[in-house]
């Protein structure tokens, strides 16, 4: 009788959410006196696929010191509903708070704590920058904040991490040269590019930290149209002949001390998969190519992302009028993406953007790639991404290693943002076997 009564009471309390981890008191943040609970923090994402991806993007870099999950979810709790407009304020405030912790630790001589705070703050400012209107001056302010606090962290790292300037057509492209504290093994070097909306600072967490601890030099460059470049060169937009800025990057990378030309790899992430494909088609200095994922035709790729019907019949929307369209007719996240595309491609309408995308084609010259290649793609990236990876693998002249990441691995996401340790292991294990560990 006692057992039955106890179980009934326990079931009623559990149903009411007042016992055990995750109870109602914890959810409200106002737990009754004398309660014991696990936490008031709740793991909650978004119903929007884009917002959820951006949340996971912030969480993913935690593997290499770019976030703390509790801080990310604290920022998420400040974002109401499904509007992207909450991201800049929530993550911007988080970045300032964590940077202040870094400053306080630095002033007291706590170098490791300061470094760790600065690294996280850099990525929180990046998250704030992402959903800031591309034409709002605050986008550049937040981007520079991410860079500046990353440089504070770089000064406290054991490895050498220094900014570099890449001369290109009368401009200076930004980049970083990173070298392991003990020097690279046999001069092995990887040149890394991000894509449409990534940053050079983010690449430290996505690829560089893992390379440094394995004994690789890492050279990061940001070319026309990319975030870091447009902070300093606002008139340089994306261009189809990306082999030219990549050639300038390779010129500077090969001048760095301890770089072996015969062990030089080129790695592109997201849209960077297109950029590095173009680079390897035209530059024999590339001795190994990694495309994550291989993009051989940007128009078809973006058609798959946006939808073929919209591409076939572009909405008659221009940059000048987009902000006047009600969010109910054109959701806010889509407006921000459209404005960012206009900003980075140097266009002012959907029709203009789609026409510009048709110029970005690397398919016809794939046979010119003779170096070994690693083609990486996730099952969650969609049929067009998988198809372009296969076109790449079938048509390059050199040997190709295919790697398809799956949901079961927690890595099907675009650029394996949900499992960066696995992604980096695939990249660097492949290079180890190619260049010698």
Structural write-up:
By secondary structure, the protein is an alpha/beta fold. It folds into three domains: 48-157, Up-down Bundle (de novo design (two linked rop proteins)), CATH 1.20.1440.110; 160-297 and 360-437, 3-Layer(aba) Sandwich (Rossmann fold); 302-357, no CATH class. Helices cover 48% and strands 12% of the residues. The protein has 17 helices and eight strands. It has helices at residues 2-16, 24-28, 49-60, 69-77, 86-107, 111-130, 137-154, 200-213, 227-232, 243-253, 272-282, 298-306, 308-312, 332-345, 350-357, 383-395, 420-435; strands at 160-168, 171-179, 189-193, 217-221, 264-269, 288-292, 373-378, 400-405. It has an eight-stranded mixed β-sheet with strand order 1-2-4-3-5-6-7-8, sandwiched between helices. The longest helix has 22 residues, at 86-107. It is globular and about 70 Å long. 44% of the residues are buried.
Summarize this structure as a short list of keywords or feature phrases.
437 residues, alpha/beta, de novo design (two linked rop proteins), Rossmann fold, 3 domains, 8-stranded mixed sheet, 17 helices, 8 strands, 48% helix, globular
- Number of separate domains: 3
Q: Shape, please?
A: globular
CATH class of the largest domain: Alpha Beta
Q: Tally of extended strands?
A: 8
Computed CA radius of gyration, to the nearest angstrom: 23 Å
* Class computed from helices, strands and strand pairing: alpha/beta
Tally of helical segments: 17
Largest sheet: 8 strands, mixed
Distance between the termini: 68 Å
CATH homologous superfamily assignment of the largest domain = Alpha/Beta hydrolase fold, catalytic domain
The stretches of 5 or more residues where confidence is low (pLDDT under 50) are: 9-28
CATH architectural label of the largest domain: 3-Layer(aba) Sandwich
Order of secondary-structure elements: HHHHHHHEEEHEHHEHEHHHHEHEH
Mean pLDDT: 92
CATH topology label of the largest domain: Rossmann fold
Strand arrangement across the biggest beta sheet: 1-2-4-3-5-6-7-8
Residue share in β-strands: 5-15%
Helix content: 40-55%
């Amino acid at each position: 009788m006692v057992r039955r009564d106890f179980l009934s009471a326990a079931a009623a309390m559990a149903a009411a959410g007042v016992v055990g981890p995750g109870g109602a008191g914890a959810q409200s943040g106002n737990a009754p006196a004398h309660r014991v609970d696990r936490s008031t923090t709740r793991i909650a994402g978004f119903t929007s696929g884009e917002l959820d991806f951006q949340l996971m993007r912030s969480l993913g870099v935690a593997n290499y010191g770019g976030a703390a999950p509790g801080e990310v979810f604290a920022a998420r709790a400040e974002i109401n509903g499904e509007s992207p407009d909450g991201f800049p304020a929530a993550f911007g405030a988080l970045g300032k708070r964590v940077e202040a912790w870094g400053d306080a630790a630095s002033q007291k001589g706590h170098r490791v704590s300061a470094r760790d705070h600065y690294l996280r703050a850099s990525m929180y400012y990046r998250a704030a920058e992402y959903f800031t209107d591309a034409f709002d001056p605050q986008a550049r302010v937040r981007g520079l904040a991410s860079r500046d606090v990353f440089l504070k962290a770089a000064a406290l790292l054991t490895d050498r991490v220094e900014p570099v300037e890449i001369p290109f057509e009368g401009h200076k492209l930004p980049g970083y040269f990173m070298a392991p504290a003990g020097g690279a093994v046999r001069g092995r070097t990887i040149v890394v590019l991000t894509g449409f909306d990534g940053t050079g600072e983010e690449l430290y967490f996505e690829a560089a930290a893992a390379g440094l601890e394995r004994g690789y030099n890492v050279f990061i460059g940001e070319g026309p149209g990319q975030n870091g470049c447009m902070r300093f060169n606002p008139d340089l937009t994306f261009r189809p002949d990306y082999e030219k800025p990549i050639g300038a990057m390779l010129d500077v990378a090969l001048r760095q001390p301890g770089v072996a030309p015969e062990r030089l790899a080129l790695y592109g992430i997201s849209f960077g998969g297109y950029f590095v494909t173009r680079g390897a088609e035209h530059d024999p200095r590339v001795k190994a190519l990694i495309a994550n994922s291989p993009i051989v035709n940007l128009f078809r790729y973006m058609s798959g992302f946006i939808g073929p019907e919209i591409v076939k019949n572009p909405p008659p929307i221009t940059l000048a009028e987009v902000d006047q369209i009600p969010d109910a007719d054109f959701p806010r996240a889509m407006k921000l993406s459209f404005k960012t595309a206009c900003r980075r491609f140097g266009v002012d309408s959907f029709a203009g953007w789609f026409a510009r995308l048709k110029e970005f084609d690397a398919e016809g010259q794939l046979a010119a790639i003779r170096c070994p290649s690693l083609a990486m793609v996730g099952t969650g990236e969609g049929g067009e991404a998988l198809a372009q990876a296969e076109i790449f693998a079938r048509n390059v002249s050199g040997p190709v290693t295919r790697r398809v990441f799956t949901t079961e691995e927690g890595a099907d996401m675009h650029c394996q943002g949900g499992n960066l340790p696995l992604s980096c292991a695939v990249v660097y294990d492949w290079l180890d076997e190619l260049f010698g560990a």
